[in-house]
From TrEMBL:
<keyword id="KW-0238">DNA-binding</keyword>
<feature type="binding site">
    <location>
        <position position="66"/>
    </location>
    <ligand>
        <name>[4Fe-4S] cluster</name>
    </ligand>
</feature>
<protein>
    <recommendedName>
        <fullName>Transcriptional regulator WhiB</fullName>
    </recommendedName>
</protein>
<dbReference type="GO" id="GO:0047134">
    <property type="term" value="F:protein-disulfide reductase [NAD(P)H] activity"/>
</dbReference>
<keyword id="KW-0408">Iron</keyword>
<dbReference type="InterPro" id="IPR034768">
    <property type="entry name" value="4FE4S_WBL"/>
</dbReference>
<feature type="binding site">
    <location>
        <position position="75"/>
    </location>
    <ligand>
        <name>[4Fe-4S] cluster</name>
    </ligand>
</feature>
<keyword id="KW-0479">Metal-binding</keyword>
<feature type="domain" description="4Fe-4S Wbl-type">
    <location>
        <begin position="40"/>
        <end position="99"/>
    </location>
</feature>
<comment type="function">
    <text>Acts as a transcriptional regulator. Probably redox-responsive. The apo- but not holo-form probably binds DNA.</text>
</comment>
<dbReference type="GO" id="GO:0046872">
    <property type="term" value="F:metal ion binding"/>
</dbReference>
<keyword id="KW-0804">Transcription</keyword>
<feature type="binding site">
    <location>
        <position position="41"/>
    </location>
    <ligand>
        <name>[4Fe-4S] cluster</name>
    </ligand>
</feature>
<dbReference type="GO" id="GO:0035731">
    <property type="term" value="F:dinitrosyl-iron complex binding"/>
</dbReference>
<dbReference type="GO" id="GO:0045892">
    <property type="term" value="P:negative regulation of DNA-templated transcription"/>
</dbReference>
<keyword id="KW-0805">Transcription regulation</keyword>
<keyword id="KW-1015">Disulfide bond</keyword>
Length: 111
């Protein structure tokens, strides 16, 4: 089983709870339904956000775009709500979101 398939450890989840990306997403939540219209990725090839590790592609280009995106928090909130594990969303990799999802479901989704 690959590392990305392992269940997150309690230590990983604790670290995710302190991650500023997750905290901002929890603050924004569902309050910005129009976020997709303002994403920096609107004019970028979507494949950029779905790198293929088997082809030695990395998420770095997508993460760089997300880092300057004004709707990163709303995008991440959407991905966590959707439970989306593929590609880069809201400045996070699938593995990062897998860990964040545990904290997300404990707080936002349970509210
Ligand atoms: S955070 Fe990244 S994936 Fe989300 S809208 Fe912005 S550029 Fe696109």
């Amino acid at each position: 089983m690959s590392r990305s398939k392992k269940n997150p450890s309690p230590e990983e989840v604790d670290a995710a709870r302190r991650d500023p990306r997750l905290r901002r997403a929890m603050d924004v939540g569902r309050r910005d339904p129009e976020w997709r219209l303002r994403g920096r990725c609107l004019s970028v090839d979507p494949e950029t956000f779905f790198p293929e590790p088997q082809l030695k592609e990395t998420p770095n280009a997508a993460l760089a775009l997300c880092s300057g995106c004004g709707v990163q928090a709303a995008c991440l909130a959407w991905a966590l709500d959707a439970g989306d594990r593929n590609g880069v969303w809201g400045g996070t990799t699938p593995r990062e979101r897998q860990v964040m999802l545990v904290a997300w479901r404990d707080t936002v989704a349970a509210a």
